[in-house]
Specification:
Blueprint: H1 20-42, E1 48-54, H2 57-77, E2 84-90, H3 103-107, E3 114-119, E4 136-139, H4 144-147, H5 160-177, E5 195-197
């Protein structure tokens, strides 16, 4: 595969618990802007972008996806090739500040071509099992693979969606979709809001 993978550790920009979601969004928008400008200036031919967010990083991943989708609209109208945008949220924290309890359900995945959520009901972090109607919801609470997973010292079930996706989710997606750019309801991809209980 011709893939370029970059991980952004934005911990130093996280701020406080009350501002983390906003700080995360600013990081996502900035990364999207840099990526878009790089794609435009170098005629890079990037065909797809996969934004993956873990916990409060879901705000960064969603903001990145939204910003790329916003920027590609004018180019699409001109017939310029634009990247396919995929969003994967792992144990996503969905509350934005004190008053934004419904932010995640109202916003996560709305612009991405394909959006998924991996969650477990055993996660002790609040709001991470909140249904996201614009995403496919993979409930991995009772999956067989969980029995073989040993929590790292000092960790909680909050890390299980990341471990599951890294160990199993990517392989399943590759086997199912291959290199196809699936979209919700295209006959290959599942509809938004679909719930899959992983056994």
């Amino acid at each position: 595969d011709d893939a370029f993978v970059t991980t952004f550790d934005w911990q130093e920009h996280r701020g406080t618990v009350l501002t983390a979601a906003y700080d995360s969004e600013a990081v996502g928008e900035t990364v999207a802007q840099c990526l878009w400008e790089n794609m435009s200036s170098k005629n890079s031919g990037i065909r797809s972008v996969h934004c993956v967010g873990i916990s409060v990083g879901a705000f960064a991943a969603n903001a990145m996806a939204m910003e790329i989708c916003r920027r590609r609209e004018p180019a699409q109208r001109d017939g310029t090739p634009v990247p396919y945008v995929r969003l994967t949220l792992l144990a996503p924290f969905t509350s934005r500040g004190v008053t934004g309890q419904s932010f995640g359900p109202d916003n996560f995945g709305t612009t991405a071509d394909y959006a998924v959520q991996f969650m477990t009901k055993e996660d002790p972090v609040p709001t991470t099992d909140t249904p996201l109607p614009q995403c496919i919801r993979y409930d991995i609470t009772s999956s067989k693979t969980r029995k073989d997973f040993v929590l790292p010292r000092g960790e909680s079930e909050h890390c299980w969606p990341l471990a599951h996706y890294a160990r199993h989710g990517l392989k399943v997606e590759k086997a199912r979709f291959g290199g196809a750019f699936v979209r919700h309801g295209d006959g290959i991809g599942l509809e938004r809001g679909a719930v899959v209980k992983v056994e």
